[in-house]
Each structure stands twice: as structure tokens, then as C-alpha cells.
User: What shape does this take?
Amino acid sequence: MNADGNVGRTGGIRPEMRTGAWVALLLLWSLGPMLWQLYTSLRTPAALLAGAGGLAGGWTLGNYTAVLTGDPPFWRYLLNSSVVGALSTLLTLALAIPCAYALSRRRVLLRLLVGGGLLAAAVFPYVLLFLALLQVARQLGLANNLLALCLPYAGLQLPLAVLLLQAAFAELPPELEESAVLEGFSLWQRLRWILLPLMGPAVVSTGLLVFLFSWNEFPIALTWISRSELLTLAPAMARIAGSSVYTVPYGAFAAATVLGSAPLLALLLLFQRQIVAGLTQGAIKG
Amino acid sequence: MSTAASLRVDGLCRRIGGRAILAGIDLEVAAGECLALLGPSGCGKSTVLRVIAGLDPCDEGRILLDGRDITRQPPARRRVAMVFQSYALYPHLSVERNLTLGMELRGVPPEQRERELTAVLELLQLSELRRRRPAELSGGQRQRVALARALLRKPQLILLDEPMSNLDAQLREEIRPQLRAILSGGRAPAIHVTHDQQEAMGIADRIAVLHDGRLQQCGTPQELYHHPANLFVAGFIGRPQINLLPQADGTVVGIRPEHLVAVGNGGLAVRVLSREWHGASQQLLLESEQGPLRWTCDGNQAVGDDLRLGWEQRHEHRFRQASGERC
Assistant: This one.
């Protein structure tokens, strides 16, 4: 960029301006719908019907109070989703870390074969499974059990998690573990003190992917849970949208959307550094 | 630092996919002795270390440490410490934690940990660096931390896998005597793998030359230099390389470049092709009817000079051309 500036003094800031314009456009493209929801959630129904885009008058927090004082109140769904998300994530990681470690220490051929199977499982459209899963839930009496949702969620996310973590294990230099072996570390001690701390970013980004899936999952949650105080976020939102035959509660729906995405935003901001490090792992030499 | 022990390796074999990486290696290292495993890259010298440490399986042969057979023992129970080429320091831990974590997990009580840590930091001049992370250390400092970690293991055997290869030439020369002093200060035998003969001669009491998975010769640096057992050792040990002159009777005569002398008549007729001046000596590349020759001398020859060279009988090495063995 310096070179550009030196060559064309007259148009010195033009490249930066162009970059800025592109960034602004991209931000608008990806953040636009969310900003629109935020705007909608803060408008009275009358203001919404009067026409889009008005800024004068018609501001209200009524949509939020309506959603939060509903029956059951909206925070209940947030809590349900958080519990299911956290448990699914923990369960997936607890199963995926040993699998990934074992796989990364196998011979290349076996790793490729198993990896191929896992990849196939990871890209399989799980929606095709939900009727069968519903039968399973009925047979085992898992319907209307919030914690039971973790089982299909962990099961469905396990292949991807194993693949991601296996790659992260494979990237650690083997001498690190060999050195720990010679020092007398047990397998568990090697994982706990040497390998996992070095894989922090990969574990965090894998965990977040699982959490996101569980947070957004709709068909299984919809069919396994029918009691309204046990609903997770996605089916609860659908209920708000379809609560009345005669009107569409735009404002309340938008308020629910904003409230539902707030915890995710908080999580992403909290783990931002690890996520970026996890995504670029292997791109630069440690 | 450790109890006296000796290492004996009998007929060590290692095969990968039907190919013999090691074909029957016999070694013996006495307590307190440092043996250098020297050989070109790919000769299997690192594999010897890995098999002795238990990181690679031993397909045939026996490894005896202090009289006990450790061939089938898991690596953690062998009481063997290794300094890796990359040092393998735990990057997320400070120097101090790198050194104490192992002791802590082995259940060494805190006071003893602190005492041993202080002693080893002192010995290797690391006291000032104890709070730093490996990334904040220079290559030489990292190597010392790796060595400190190996010593704290109180090993009955220390293995060093090319520990100098990541250091610059000047630092290597500085470190060699220190490393030698530290290794001989402990009573544990040490095996030092290197491809650098200078390093091997500078550090080791004895050198084992390895080539193609076979032991070529094992002896003191002087033995290897003055009595190479075969053509490979003769060519590998000594810089500049030995001159090899094939004879009509199916033997090869080897003459070290520094043993050639200018003679008035007789000897070999040569012409100076090129000249490198090294201060104390000069290194000449000569042309003769038997092919190119190397000569180290302190005279003042110029490129293009014609000379006659000879050598004393006692400096002559004779090998069989077919087998490469010494006559």
C-alpha cells in the first residue's frame, strides 16, 4: 500500500477509499437483515404498518416486554437452548477428543478410510433422519425430555468434530508427545498438560460449531418436544410467528430474534481470538 | 547426577515394510562415556536412538541398560532421556514449568523439585530465564533448557539427536566443550547422534560410524582417523577427504591430503588446478594421471605449477577394491 501511495501522490488515498467502500458494502450485505430486525423490534405495530423506513415517532420497547412476559416467558427458551447447547457441546467434545487422538495416531491408510466415512457422515443431510429419530425417541421414552436432545445433537455433530480435532492433533509436532512419553507422562497427563492446551483454538472453534448447530436446530427439537415450557429457541420462535391466524406479530418476532441472537454474539465476542486462531491453524508456522 | 549404568545393544534390527533400516547394530557404552553415532543422513542413526528410547519398536536384538533387559519395556519405564533435534520444549509453558512439570507428575515433592531445579538452572546458566517461554529464547538457550529437562529426569542413559544442528557454527564450537563437561559430569552414558564429524570428534570419547543401517567401525576418533576399517570410513572421516588411488593389484591406496609431501624425483607427477588459502594452511586441488588429488600444505604453490608428490609408507592405508575392507 505504501508503494501505491508513493507512485501516485495525487490519488494517494484512493485505494484506501476503495477498500473502505467494499468493506462497508460487505458489512451492509451481511449485517443488513439483522439491523432490519433490530429496527423492527423497536417499532410499534402501527408504525410498522404505516410503511417501512420511517424514523420519526412510533418507537417502543413494547415488543420486548410482550415477549419477555409471555407464557412461558421468553428467557425460558433461552435457558432451555443454553442448557441443551452447553450439554451437547460438552458431550460431543468428550467423545470427539479421544476419537480424534486415537485416529491421528493410526496409520495413514486407516486414517484416510475412517476420515472418508466421517466426512460422508458429516455432510449427510440429517433432515432425512428426523422421522426415524422420532421413532427412536418414542421407543425409548425420550420425548419431552430436554436433556435427551443432546443425544441426537452430539451424534450428528460428532463426525465433523472428530475430523476437525483430528487435523489439529495431527498438526502438533510428534516430538512434543514423545518427549512427554520419555518423561514418564501417562496418556491422560499428555492430553491434559501438553496436547489439549496447545489445541485450545481448535477445541474452542469446534465446540462453538456444535453449540451453534444445537442453538439453530429445528426439526428434531420440534418433533421431540411438545410441552411449551421445554421448547428450545427455534421451535419457540416458530410458535410466536404462528400464534395468531389473523395477524403476523412482526414486532414480537423481531424482538425474539434479537434476544435469541444476543447470547451467540456474546459467545463469539468472548472467544473471538481463539476462533480466528483456530480457523487459520496451520496457515502459519508456529 | 545419576547412578552408574552401562548400555549394551546386541544385534539391533529394525525393518519398515520389508526394508531393513537397521541391520544388526552392536554397541556398548560404558558408564559416564559419550558415544557419537556418526553417519550421513538416512543411515539410520536417529532410528537407533528411537529404538533404544522405545519410541520405535525393536524387530530383533536386545537392549541392556545396567544389566536389565529393556527391549520390550515401555519408554516411560526405561529411565532414558532424550534431547530432540527440535528440542521439543512445551511451547505454552515457561522454562521453569517445562523443567518441573515432569517431576511434578512423577510425584517428586515440592522442596526437592525446587532444589533440583535451582541446581540445574545454575549448572546450565539458565537462572535468569526461568520465567520466559521457549519462543522468547535463542537457539542456544532452548538447547540448554532441553538438556536441563533431560538431566532432571535423572536418566540412566542420555540420548541426543543432532542437538547442535539448529545452532550457528560459532555457537556450536562454544557449546561443544560445555556439553562435554556436563555429560561427563554425570555418570550416565550418552549417545550423541550427528552427521558432523567435527562435532563427533569434539564431544565423544568414541565414535560409531553408521552407513546403510550397518555399523562400519566403532572406536576412538584417533583410531577412526589413523586406522579406518574400510573405504567408507576412510572417505567419511577427515576433511579434506582422503585421496584414494586404485592400484593394479585390486587394492586401493588411501593417503590423507596432509600426508602428501613434495619430492625431488619419483612419486606422482601432478599439476595444481586450484588453490584455497586457509591462513594456517592451503588446500590444493591437483591433477594427476590417477585422477584428481587433494593436498594440504603450507608451501606457496601457484595454480599451474608442476610438482612431484610422494608419501611415507607408514601413512599409507590399503583397502581391497571389491569388499572395501582394510587389507
Summary: The interface with chain B takes residues 173, 175-176, 178-186, 189, 193-194, 197-198, 286 of chain A (CB under 8 Å).
